[in-house]
Structure prediction request, 478 residues.
Amino acid sequence: MGHKLKITGWVALGVVAGALTTVSLQTVARNSLAPLPLEELQQLATVFGMVKSDYVEPVDEKKLITDAITGMVASLDPHSQYFDKKAFKEFREGTSGKFVGVGIEITQEDGLVKVVSPIEGSPAFRAGLKTNDLITKIDDTAVKGLTLNEAVKRMRGEPNTKVLLTIFRKEENRTFPVTIIREEIKQQSVRGKVVEPGYAWIRVSQFQERSFEDFAKKVDEIYKQDPKIKGLVLDLRNDPGGLLTAAVAMSAAFLPDNVTVVSTNGQTPESKQVLRATASDIRGLSGAEALKTLPAALKKVPVVVLVNEGSASASEIVAGALQDHKRATIMGSQSFGKGSVQTFRPLGPDTGLKITTSRYYTPNGRSIQAKGIVPDLMVDETEEGSPFAALRMREADLEKHLSSGQGEEKKDTAREKAREEALKRLEEESRKPASERKVPEFGSDKDFQLIQAINHLKGKPVLVSKTQVERKEEAKDN
Prediction:
């Protein structure tokens, strides 16, 4: 057995080393990494051989290698992912803009599926799913142990079929089932209205291919209804992000021509770029020509941007650009902090790698990653405050998250105490009727943060938060 194991191990090492030779040569050609560590590769081959020869039952070699690649990529950060044949097919379907499912933006937390944001108008939205809900079961399958891609696959299916999701809602300290009927997801990402004479509200729920075109149409509609708009609220709360070019276009709608909107920086030359408020940097985007036909008043109208913990990625780019150029007042809660760029690299005709290649930076050079955008004015969700803010997760709370590169957030003992107090309040809150616990709909006449934004535009006093504080940073240890 020992001789057999030794042979198996060295054969495996030969296979692994041979397969990686091409990678090593490519790596050297890119001048980005040192030679591969042979001792560690030998250990990898030895473990591969032991599993192959000694495991309680035969294992598939291809699956072992695929799982090893999957684990290696997953260990980098929460957003990098390896796509095998099945996952690659589903990824291509997802990026086509149309899919059949329940309609939620998700991530992983403690092995469970976490709702980042329900897509407005989707079956999940209508069923009442909320940001930070945890999905513990999909039909009869426990989510614990599933990859994010496997969970997505189980939630997708044919139109008009049912899926049963078991939800744990931290804010109410309860678990409950929700039956959702799948349908083709077609998100209307832009809504808006004149709130009162002279003041308008435009909500962008996600940055999609048509979002800027829809935004331009909504702006035209608002200015036709009220040509004397004196203030505008751009609502990016719970906007999980999306297309970078759409974010650049929306920033350009408010900013002077050709100023910097966002920059990116990574190891490779293609990961280093500066995107500006110009038509050339949004070329190819649906409705890009609308940048030249927007009302001229939009460049000067006072603006408030609303963000919260669910505002991520592209929405943080917009908020950061308008904040750095002093073009808008940012209000709400500190944003999610998803400031990394994922690039898809094909590995063959039916496999690929989505890998984090760079970080986003605001015009003033601030890293968004794991920090987010800190509002100029912290404003609670309700007049009574945001009692559960300490429980809300951000990028910096995710396991294995990429650092900002500009210092890490402090481990705040006071925050842990605040979490304990918030949990006690949760127990009390869970005893109230559901109607009393519901946060008012965005854009409604009871939307406290929107009311405060309008007050700010009018020059009236704003009720700033008494509970929220910025999560500070400290320099990394050398």
